Amino acid sequence: MPQGDRRSADLDLYDVIYDGDVTVQPSGSDVTGWLSGGLGQLTDGEEGQPNFRLDPRGLGVKGYQWVGWRNESFSGALRPGEGEESQGASVEMTWKFDAVRNFSALRVHANNMFARDVRVFRAARVSFSVGGHIFTKPPLEYLYA
């Protein structure tokens, strides 16, 4: 998945605890980098504070509990190993596990602080695969009202 974006000079919405590989994009790209082979904030089980500008733990890092992206970061961003540009303004995440897993639920927490120019995603599409080559069709889809 792509690394989160910088929101402002004092607010980065990066996955700062990610323990896998970070592929840095070539200079001139709006995408900070790509994360692969590890775990981070999206799997730590902690929910972010409603106000993403807070530093509730006093770490000196505002937005620490959130990973976020700007739509314009994905226009023309190259995915690692691919020579083509991404399509549209969407965040694609692929989760790989060491064995086949049975999922009964998926919980996604999103911030929707509209007054701060932060919006929840428009739709979430989830596909499943064994082996990563053939995915379920059609995907499970959630559309935000």
Question: Would you summarize the structure shown here?
Answer:
It is built from no helices and six strands.
Mean pLDDT: 82
Q: What's the total number of strands?
A: 6
* First-to-last CA distance: 25 Å
Unreliably modeled segments: 83-87
Q: Which geometry do the CA atoms define?
A: globular
Question: What Rg, in angstroms, do the CA atoms define?
Answer: 16 Å
- The spatial strand order of the largest sheet comes to 1-2
Oligomer: single chain
Give a short account of the largest sheet: 2 strands, antiparallel
Amount of beta strand? 5-15%
| Content-based structural category | mainly beta
| SS field, number of helical segments | 0
**What share of residues is helical?**
under 10%
Write the H/E string, N to C: EEEEEE
Essential attributes:
145 residues; mainly beta; two-stranded antiparallel ribbon; two-stranded antiparallel sheet; 6 strands; globular
Verbal overview:
The protein has 145 residues and is mainly beta. The protein has no helices and 6 strands. The chain has strands at 6-8, 11-12, 21-24, 33-36, 123-126, 140-143. Strands 1-2 form a two-stranded antiparallel sheet. The protein starts with 5 loop residues before the first strand and ends with a strand.
